[in-house]
Write the structure tokens for this entry.
Amino acid sequence: MKILLDTSVYSQPIKKRPLATVVAHWKSHPESEYAISTICELEVLYGIRLAASNRLSRAYEDILKGRFPILAFDKDCAALYADLQAASVSKGQTWPAFDLMIAATAILHGLELATCNAADFQSIPGLIVKDWSLPASSL
């Protein structure tokens, strides 16, 4: 594994109109390089249940479920999350909880984070962010 997929990337295959840039990035690496976090899985499942969409549920079952390894948000991730969030509060900055949990998972596993929301992850120490909303040639 080399790349942790953020929810904004992981959910693209089940959208009615996936972003072409994400599809291109997705195809540019072997799937064995990808993983997701338990937080990403939570966000996708919650979104499907909130939408109460049979189409999304079927698409998830057919396309995403079990496709990639799922890395747990464990006690080491929790400790890193707490350190990062506490340090950011002292500087007057905080990150959304789920985003920082995903970031902590990527950092601890030495993975790059692929996202379409790079701004949400800016300035997180130790995190390598790849913005898949941009063409590969601009990264």
Observations:
- Strands lie at 3-5, 34-37, 70-71, 112-115, 129-131.
- The longest helix spans residues 75-90.
- The longest strand covers residues 34-37.
